[in-house]
Amino acid sequence: MFTCMTSSPEETGHLAELVGQKIREGTVLCLEGDLGAGKTLFVQSLARTLGVEGDVTSPTFNLMNVYEGICRIYHFDLYRLETEEELDDIGFYEYTEEPEGIVVIEWPDKFPESLPDDYIEVRIRKLGEDSDERQIDFSSIGEKNQEFIKELEDFVHTGH
Ligand code: ADP
Ligand code: MG
Fold first, then answer.
1. What does the alpha-carbon distance between residue 142 and residue 78 come to, in Å, rounded to a whole number?
2. What is the 47 CA–ligand 1 centroid distance (Å)?
3. Long-range contacts of 17-21 (CB under 8 A, 24+ apart)
4. Least distant ligand from the CA of 133
């Protein structure tokens, strides 16, 4: 696990850009954090870095967006989902069990039992009600991304 602190949307955007430079196809990234933490902002910057040119918006109503960049990006938002069956209905497991491209999931903590064995968890915490300060924790769940998370830590903290 490693932690980054940011003090503005731009800084969080920059952090997501660094993640976008390193992330590999076949990775699932779960973004935890309250409303307004910065999950969607993070995905927007990640998607831009991966060459996505169109709109990147929270798929709160349609549940999943697909973007075309240098690879395909599947963007889920589970906020409005109520039952696990609905996950099945939207084909969630087909995207997460053997992921192609990059899969990002907002509100993964709504369905902890339904998450894949391997993923990168990004937890964004707002430090204070009206604060722009964020604590962002990166961890690897499962074996697959252990090495990657160490590489990412070096890259984020030292720039190489
Ligand atoms: P979420 O998807 O987690 O609900 P959004 O990304 O939609 O949140 O919104 C985050 C909001 O918080 C944006 O309006 C953004 O400008 C603001 N913000 C302020 N400081 C930060 C920061 N350090 N990192 C990310 N967002 C920030
Ligand atoms: Mg959002």
1. 21
2. 16
3. 17/45, 17/46, 17/48, 17/49, 18/152, 18/155, 18/156, 19/46, 19/49, 19/122, 19/152, 19/156, 20/45, 20/46, 20/47, 20/48, 20/49, 20/50, 21/49, 21/155
4. 1
Give the residue carrying structure tokens 């009206």.
Answer: 130
Contact predicate 143/133, CB 8 Å: no
Looking at ligand 1, which residue's alpha carbon is closest to its atom 24?
9
Tokens representing 149 are 């998370």
Q: How many CB atoms are located within 10 Å of the residue 7 CB?
A: 12
For ligand 1, whether the C-beta of 6 sits within 6 Å is yes
Residue pLDDT, tens place only, 47-88: 999 999 999 998 888 889 999 999 999 999 999 999 999 999
pLDDT of residue 159: 78
